Amino acid sequence: MDQTQAFILAIVIIVVLLIVFVISFVLYMRTPAPKGCEKLKIGPKNCEDCDVEGCMIYKERHKKEEKEEKE
Amino acid sequence: MNKYLKVSLTLATIASGSALLIGLMNLATVGAIAANKENKIKNGISRFYPEQYYYQYFEMKENSDELEDGKLLYPTINSVYIVDVPREEGYKRGYVYSTSAKNSYGQVDLLISIKEAKIDEIYVVKNTESYGQTLEDNYINKYNNGYLKDLADVKCGATYGAKIVKEQCDDAMRHYTNNYAKEGE
Amino acid sequence: MSMDKIKRSQHKESFLNGILRENPLLVQILGLCPALAVTKSLETAFGMGLLFTFVLVSSNVIVSLLRKLIPEEIRTPCYIVVIATFVTIVKMFAEAFLPELYSSLGVFLSLLVVNCIVLGRSEAFAGQNGVFDSFLDGCGNGIGYTWAISLMGLIREIFGKGTLTIGKVFNFFGDPLVLPILKSTTLDTNGDPLYDFSISIFQNPAGAFIVLGLMLAVMAAITNHKKAVEKAKERAAKEAAKAEATLVAGGAK
Amino acid sequence: MEMIVSFILAIVSYMLIDNVVLSRFYGICSFIGVGNKVKSAFSMGLAVTFVIMMATLVCYPLYFYVLVPAGIPFLDTLVYILVIASLVQIVGLFIKKTSPSLYKTLGIYLPLITTNCAVLGVVQTNSDSQLDFLTSLANGLGTSIGFLIVIVLFACMRERLNGYNIPKAMKGVPIALIVAALMAMAFMGFGGMVG
Predict the structure, then answer these.
(1) Is A24 on the interface with D (CB under 8 A)?
(2) Is D25 close to C33, i.e. CB distance below 8 A?
(3) Residue range D61-115, pLDDT digits in tens
(4) Which end of chain A is more exposed for a tag (fewer CB within 10 A), N or C?
């Protein structure tokens, strides 16, 4: 196959995949969660068992816990 | 509407920018990658024959003489390198086969050196068949170092990887006995 | 003048943070997969670190250049494309000019795309900060990660293989240099090395887990100790202040 | 017959001998991060299984019938990550719209899977070592079952670990890594089971 043709095909493939990804991403973000799971997000409540200290959620949780301890 | 136009323009710019970068990089490196592959085979041959020498080679798979009933006679052999090693009286010939074979786990590319009608040493050019170094450590290096008398060893010659190694060695040996064995005598 | 100083200190902080205080591997515990997989030898680990740093720095710079152009909603897709582009470029570069490194890294070079550090830095830092800061942040984090995995590679190679090989992956200077540390390179009459104290488990996957676990534990012990010292100091200062206050109160009486 | 045997052997080999987490080191982050709840570990494993199988099914034809004939196989990583990411979003969307109960168990893990190395790792090895379609499927299936097994076992072990008196510095990730090392040693015993 010709080089320019391959190049154009490469751009087309990337653009198509990117468009598919963006559309699905935006749709996923905009779709409301079904009933009963509105609060189902990654947050301190769901991550109680996790020990990865670099995680922002972990840090926040421990800050809160420390505050509570102080009080 | 204007907003969507802007978004799609940004996306198109990013996509074509990345395609452009990758394409340019490919143009810049494609020669070096091909040269690397050749170098690897050259290095392999100079491992077998450390002294400088003259060698010639021909591609196998393009050679139509090797067809039998529409099938390749030696399906795993890519090319043969005939090495002239300078000796005190005249030259001595060595034969190195570049082979590759595939099973359902991946591909193994080898350089097989035949000296005095015996497989002398095997050099792994590329191995995507087994994870890590298992094939080399457990099988090929053991043969190279003389721990295994025969490639058809019961203990470590029974894996799928070893099977395709053996297949390649068989092809090389067969080609050697059919074409070059008499020459050497 | 003072604005300038603040700016400079901010630059310094964004560079230094990644190296030690918020080291991506040892403190934030991110990017474990390559750290465990490519640290069989010092040189592969170091090479991985270099390529990683390049990807991180360039994706950080591009992301922070594009941060005002990209709408909030489609950030993640754009970041992924930018990162994947640089990973592909790095892959080609390594295949062409560092073939030994390329073959020993294998899939893990491609897996840089989903590396938590690269994505995380893009989202958390480069998406909100200026180009220069993002560049420094990328450098700092890259250097921090590189030294951490190089140290791991050093430990695993010395204990696991017994020898330290230099110049095999970066083979621009002729033959590699093999340093006998725990295993002699000279052979005795039987063909065995003169001395051999290497422990092969360090070359195995299990060894990788053990070494990383112990390194993290040491790091945690150091931070714990620092925290304890700081707390003790604080407490001492508080008590001193209290004592002073009572003294002053007593004096007033 | 031989094909079936080699398919099953390939699954066993990818599942136990070259286990994703313990000897190929994919997906360590979620392995360490998912913590000590067996139930959540199980749903994470299931979600990963599903996405790996989908990704294998989509990426295999894309590589061998589009990228290679067009002469642009070097675009593989970029294409794979886009495919995986959009797959995850589409699956998430589907689950969100149709099955609330499934969303309840899998929902929070789905976005995390995009950055799970196991998915990209499997797809990339398939094309790097030129596996055929059946073995690609076996690789996907074996890898994901191996991931499921290991992550559930690990969660059980960490659940037990909770009650013990561990040195303060070793708490959390370090002791988890040591446990993983012991597991890796145990899994080394499978080596050589399938040739």
Answers:
(1) yes
(2) yes
(3) 999 999 998 888 888 999 999 999 999 989 888 888 888 877 877 777 777 788 8
(4) C
Q: What total number of domains does chain A contain?
A: 2
A43 with A16, same domain? Answer: no
Residues 6+ apart with CB under 8 A from D135: B104, B105, D6, D7, D10
Contact: B22, D10; criterion CB under 8 Å: no
Mutate to test the interface with D, among C27, C74, C114 (most CBs of D within 10 A): C114
Q: Which of D130, D132, D134 sits opposite B128 (nearest CB)?
A: D130
Give, for C105, the enclosing helix (H) or strand (E): helix C99-105
Domain that holds residue A66: 39-71
At CA D191, angle to CA D185 and CA D195, rounded to 5?
170
Three-state DSSP state, C198: coil
D127 domain-assigned: yes
pTM: 0.87
Write down the domain spans for chain C.
12-158, 201-252
- Is D182 within a domain? yes
Decide if D107 and A14 are in contact by the 8 Å CB cutoff.
no
- Chosen for mutation from D15, D20, D74, D86 (greatest number of chain B CBs closer than 10 Å) is D74
How far is CA B117 from its chain centroid?
Answer: 20
Nearest-CA distance from D1 to chain C in Å? 32
Residue C221 tokens read as 């012990």
- Using 50, 70 and 90 to split pLDDT, how confident is the model at B185? very low
- ipTM of the shown complex: 0.84
Which range marks the domain in which residue D85 is found? 2-188
Domains of chain B by residue range: 1-48, 51-184
Look up residue C112 and give its two tokens: 């840089």
Half-sphere exposure in the Cβ direction for B150 (13 Å, CA):
5
Residues A47, A64 within the same domain: yes
- Contacts of C23-26 with CB under 8 Å at 24 or more apart are C23/C144, C23/C145, C23/C148, C23/C219, C24/A54, C24/C117, C24/C141, C24/C144, C24/C145, C24/C148, C25/C144, C25/C145, C25/C148, C25/C149, C26/C148, C26/C215, C26/C216, C26/C219
Total domains, chain D: 1
Please indicate, yes or no, whether residues A27 and A2 belong to a single structural domain of this protein: yes
Average pLDDT, chain C: 89
Q: Residue D194: inside a domain, yes or no?
A: no
Mutant choice from D17, D81, D127 vs C, greatest count of C C-beta within 10 A: D81
- Among chain D residues, the shortest Cα distance to A34 is held by D100
Buried b (16+ CB within 10 A) or exposed e, C143-168: bbbbbbbbbbbbbbbbbbbbbbeeeb
The chains found to touch A (3+ Cβ pairs under 8 angstroms) are B, C, D
From B35's Cα to the closest Cα of chain A, the distance in A is 20
